[in-house]
Amino acid sequence: MSSVRLLVASFSTPQDPVLHSWLVHRSRVLGETHYGSALEKSDGFDPEEHIFVWRLLTSNNRELARSAAIFKKFSEARDDAAETQRSIQDLAHHSVIDADQGTHTWLAFAAEEPKVFGARWFRMERDRDKALHNALIAFSSARLPESAHAAGLRR
Q1: Domain for residue 139, yes or no?
Q2: 132 in a domain, yes or no?
Q3: Model's pTM, two decimal places?
Q4: Structural domain total, the chain
Q5: What is the model's pLDDT at position 46?
Q6: Where in the sequence is the domain holding 115, given as residue range(s)?
Q7: Is the separation of the CB atoms in 80 and 59 below 8 Å?
Q8: Which domain of life is it from (predicted)?
């Protein structure tokens, strides 16, 4: 994993369908009863504001992990990615099972706050365990971004 990086993705609107997909995955992992819909003003997000999340990517752009939080500023997302990178070995790592689908992923907490989770669901526990192992290794050498990457639908 020579060119592993942390990428901060920027969505131009809280209603972006790609962000919606992100939120659905996040909701499944966190075990929320409602699957994430587009962010609303009631969530503290303005329709005119950009939304930021971070991702851990391999050199071939395979996603290994995602931030559990959603941010209003690039600097907040970058700082969270840096803090997670520094503390990844100290976080509490948990297995997550989607009983309806029979699939597995992982989730890491800091002081009972979700910090980062696996980017994919796996049919086999051993594949989930390997994905977590690879993410832990990748975090140690990941480069932090200097700027945000435009994500979501382009017009």
Answers
A1: yes
A2: yes
A3: 0.84
A4: 1
A5: 62
A6: 5-150
A7: no
A8: Bacteria
